[in-house]
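Technical annex B. To support the medicinal chemistry partners, we prepared a structural model of the target in complex with acetoacetyl-coenzyme A, based solely on the information shown next.
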Amino acid sequence: MIHLTEEQRMIQSMVREFARRAVAPGAAERDRTKTFPADVLKQLGELGLMGMMVPMEYGGSGADAISYVAALEEIAAACAATAVVMSVQNSIVCQTLLHFGTPEQKKRFLLPLAKGEVIGAFALTEPEAGSDPVSQTTQAVRDGKYYIINGTKRFITSGKNAHTVIVTAKTDEAKRHKGISAFVVNKGTAGFKVGHEEEKLGLRASDTTDLIFEECRIPADQRLGAEGQGFDIAMQGLDSGRIGIAAQSVGVAQAALDACIRYTQKRTQFGQSIAKFQGLRWIVADMATQIAAARQLTLAAAALKDRGQNFTMQAAMAKLFASEMVNRITGQAIQLHGGYGYTQDYPVERYYRDARVFTIYEGTSEIQRIVIANHIYKDKRN
Ligand code: CAA
């Protein structure tokens, strides 16, 4: 069992207080009106929550992964759309720049991201390359001191609102996954524009768009890592990202359970509070148990990351279990609310819609099972 230290608990309480006061109240309205939570994110940046695991010298808070997980869970419980922006920024974007960026790239790109002054995005997926990113067709062709990028990326979280984007592209078709490279591109670069914006079931306050590169010429010093290292960079970024999605899942599930506890105590049927019916109490008990298990898996993956150990399999397990758990729990939460649960008068219908994508993005449940099984069969002990 992983328990938070005194310091980690202080961060958790600070973020919980902020999330309840400043993030939760506008969540339903932002969802209805598809309004990007720009003001909330600005405040998250001021609190040091947009680059939590980045050292202070690069504008971050220097926190550990466990504190990050605890903080993200609180934001997700208040507003899942805000949490996905926070997760992408902290996990895939900042961690990737921190691990693979040169000192100059860190100063130029990471610092403003970690301070929360700008939003970041990670562009790997394409219209015809989702679970299989090696089949991507975006190309980056070297031209002296430049690369010229051509291609379309799809389903990019914060695509419209991001200023800095990490994008992958093929630099050598023949080398398959070793022929993919990563680049950092800022908005405003000629040949780089935002395309179609998706109309989504949930997470409606967070934008998901195409990003289009047409003869986009960028200096070669905006390549991240070595040429051909892009797939490795993306996979390692996704390892961190998957811990974030697990934490987001736990947060939404906890919010759904809390809503059920409030509702079942208030609602009276057959002459008594429905919280007195054993059939419902057992559902609530199972919900709480599943959330506790998912939280522990998520913290365990974060603890491995903090110890500098490989956490690929644990991140996949946490993401798989937590994202499937929250889909069960938000469905049950609507059931416990009866007809009211199906309306926008209660928050559970939003939780249900928001949670649906958690088993899909940053690697589907099926991909997580592939990652887990590959690690099990590669384990020398077997
Ligand atoms: N870290 C480092 N290297 C890794 C790695 C990891 N986690 N996983 C794989 N690799 C390396 C392997 O070591 C191997 O390298 P070598 O050839 O040098 O040995 C290479 O990558 C290929 O690995 P595998 O043979 O295991 O590859 P595979 O084809 O069996 O499986 C996959 C790859 C796991 C299916 C991978 O393609 C994958 O994760 N797919 C899902 C992609 C995904 O999650 N997309 C979501 C995009 S982001 C998003 O959702 C939107 C957003 O806005 C954030």
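Notes passed to the chemistry partners:
The pocket of acetoacetyl-coenzyme A is lined by residues 88, 92, 122, 124-125, 131-133, 155-157, 177, 231-232, 235-236, 238-239, 312, 361-363, 367, 370-371, 374 (CB under 6 Å).
Residues 230-266 form the longest helix (37 residues).
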